[in-house]
Amino acid sequence: MTQGTAGAIQPEGWTARRIRLMHRLAARLATQARPATGFVSQPEPKTIGSFARGKQLCAGNFMFAGYLVEAKTPAGSRALPLWDLPMPAPAFEEALHGFGWLDDLAAVADGPARARAQAWTWDWITRFGRGRGPGWTPELTGRRLIRWINHALFLLNGRERAEADAYFRSLGQQTIFLARRWHTARPGLPRFEALTGLIYAGLALTGMERHVGPAANALAKECASQIDAQGGIPTRNPEELLEVFTLLTWAAAALAEAGRSPQSAHLQAIERIAPTLRALRHSDGGLARFHGGGRGTEGRLDQALASAGVRAVPAEGPAMGYIRLAAGRSTVIVDAARPPMGPRPPMPMPRPWPSS
């Protein structure tokens, strides 16, 4: 079963079931492969967390995908049982398995935050590390790998050797799964997440270098096919464009730090997107909210633009179909694109004139 846009539960189609079963099979096969044993190099952490959200997590308030779940710490327990929480919606559970919350706990970075991050991570390995659970999709695996690698020092601090071995074993297994299944991610943001995670893992982990070249090639092809000449994406969601831009800058930086040159299509996509995002930004720093997108994570756009180093200003005319008007501290951003056009209905056959 899947959840529709209005929250209604809809039957899962055969194609979706088949893909899910293939993900599960690939995940279990990956657990039999030779694991990674450590880091070759580790990219500089670039994910930005929220101190306030991290403190809320430590207090037992879990806010994901628009749902709030409150949980109390059991007596004598050092951390809340994250994976035992009631899951109000599939999107809530997916957010947990993507490990974006690890950024928030790392932003707090005190003892209780680290204890929760470690407990929840190793509990995930125990419960889901052998291919079980909803977290074994290419986009969630890519998102999770980026966080685990970014915050490795935060997670491994004070851990026993056996726990570190389990951590690296799981990283290697997830990388192998991603190398086999990234192509099944939907084009757009999900596939960019999968490929960026694969590049991160291939560069960082021992024995995984062979995945970097194919992933970088695939990422360049996705840039050419998904980022149009004006730096826009098919969904026309500004926040989603920011997420894609951020992933591309992370991947480019990781490749450059490892002594590899990002491909021209990859770099050109970054150069096209940067001025478009500047055009879609209000004077308060937030993005225009269209097509389901929000204003963007605080500081994410500034960091991504600084990392990209692209100083191009928005061109005259529409940016991804939007027009920006500004005077002083006031901005108005208008959706001026033509409405989507479906296939034309067939022309009706002319009726014959009645015979006299």
From TrEMBL:
Residues 336-356 are annotated as: Disordered. Residues 340-356 have a biased composition (Pro residues). The lineage of its organism: Bacteria, Pseudomonadati, Pseudomonadota, Alphaproteobacteria, Rhodobacterales. It comes from Frigidibacter mobilis. Gene3D superfamilies: Chondroitin AC/alginate lyase. It comes from the Bacteria. This is Heparinase II/III-like.
